[in-house]
Amino acid sequence: MAKPTIGDVARVAGVTRATVSHAYSGKRSISAPTKARVFEAAESLGWVPSHSARALATRRANAVGLVIARDPGVIASDSFFPAFIAGLESGLADAEVALLLQVAASRSAEERAYRSMAHGKADGVIVIDLHRSDWRVAFLAELGLTAVLLGAYEQESPFSCVRSDDAVQMRDLITHLRGLGHERIAHVTGPLGYVHSHARARAYVEEIGSEELLREGDFGAASGRDLTGELLDLTDRPTAVLYANDTMAIAGLSLARSRDFRVPDDLALAGFDDDHLSAHLSPALTSVATDPFRRGRITAEVLLADIDGATPGSVEIDCNELRLRASTAAPAPSIAQGGDR
Amino acid sequence: MAKPTIGDVARVAGVTRATVSHAYSGKRSISAPTKARVFEAAESLGWVPSHSARALATRRANAVGLVIARDPGVIASDSFFPAFIAGLESGLADAEVALLLQVAASRSAEERAYRSMAHGKADGVIVIDLHRSDWRVAFLAELGLTAVLLGAYEQESPFSCVRSDDAVQMRDLITHLRGLGHERIAHVTGPLGYVHSHARARAYVEEIGSEELLREGDFGAASGRDLTGELLDLTDRPTAVLYANDTMAIAGLSLARSRDFRVPDDLALAGFDDDHLSAHLSPALTSVATDPFRRGRITAEVLLADIDGATPGSVEIDCNELRLRASTAAPAPSIAQGGDR
After folding, report:
1. B63-163+292-319, superfamily in CATH?
2. How far is it, in rounded angstroms, from Cα B274 to Cα B329?
């Protein structure tokens, strides 16, 4: 029997040859049932798209890139990453697009990673951990890469942006704590160069009207512990602390306990990101669930659409949910009245 | 000024042109300081290796592949994945090799993923979730891909294999429980088609001498819950249950509690894999830490060496550590003497 051709596959599947080609290129305009029909036909005939023909026909790498400019350990220690990566894969799997994941230890390694992606290894990239004025935006535009930015980027950019408004939950938390009788509410932030840390800190300052109890942390447990210690040492100490992530909040909880502060009676604590662990602590930690899985899925979908020629735009997603738990309650009477332990 | 050439870079860095080329190809035979010198020289001169020249010179994708044939959600819900991926990245980052991660929803999607990796998208692949007789071994060999198998594969294979002996900790756990006075010890396994589940189950049967209290689960919480219920319904119920992962053990703990069994007095429980959460439960869960980060790092190093022409072999790693916690203790006297609650 002669070797099967793309025409044979098209005939058996009842579609055009272009549709067969598109089904293999990850084009999203082909419906899942049609794709399935094409793949079944190809399999029954033993037809395999040749890599070069496919590459020529589509000029697609069928991969999108994610460069992480942090220590590799963060992929396991920060619960954002596994859920976000799982969400990306869930948005890419149907189109059979792979995720090219690269950890870069330096700025120059980062640039080399993006360059090699631009030179055929990826059809587009996802940019996370945005800085308020981020060199990558102009760099990627110059490379001609399609990109999607995760976060509320406020500078000009030619790229789609998937953003959510964290300020809402910061304000809700502060309103809730004030309703319980808290008057001295502190905030331990992430690095303020990051868009997400800055947005949360700005909402805090707007709501509280002062930076007196604002401390800049780095998302790590050690900074959560040390800054909590610093806040508790103040003559007029806070009765509640909001942290920009749960890791710092858990370290703060542990430090407060070790100094015999009762949580939540003497000190109310709340985190952000709702770590896997937080609902199971004693007391359970109030936090804001940010659904990184859904963020990942939507980001992948926007990127695939942009690669297919959609006009870049801003996508506002509403993924956040305040989870009130036992770590936030009314201050003990002596504390609320300004006395101390 | 004329455009800089690879010769200029070699001169400034004080190395040969071949060394410059190898530094960019991810060859591990170039030392890190030499590499750094080459990259600095290239940067100072503004020299960029052209993709095609680089590809021709080295025939490297500078990426390794990992195909996950499970639901994308598992990357977040099973703590093995983030730590293993972080470990892989830690083993790949110095060589500036990326990880091409693809979730495949079907056998044919899986085959297409490996084919496209073999056709230039990856220099080698990592194979996880090995089955006792795994179709991927012959398939990858036929594709001519370099591969490393994670797990104690017992069939013939042309690939390196990174294995650890889980049987040791199963035996230690059983010895420990017997020392505490437990005589009826059950085991809820993972799917027995998997190499890792089978090895743990075999160690259990060898040690206990019977399959009476062996139940096959699927690593999911629902199977942990249901099989625990089944075991507790037995007339001569077990006083201790060993689970093949912590997810099933946590579901079992919760089911036992809901039926008013005291843990560990009425029922001792132990997991495997030492989830992030397990040390923080009440009672804390006895488990076996398997250090997937280190597994990932070693697997990446073995794969990079094999890509560079090392002879494939078997690497035995000793990553496991039994973590005895409050969920395993002596049975309450009435239970140990054969009475029931």
Report:
1. Response regulator (3.40.50.2300)
2. 18
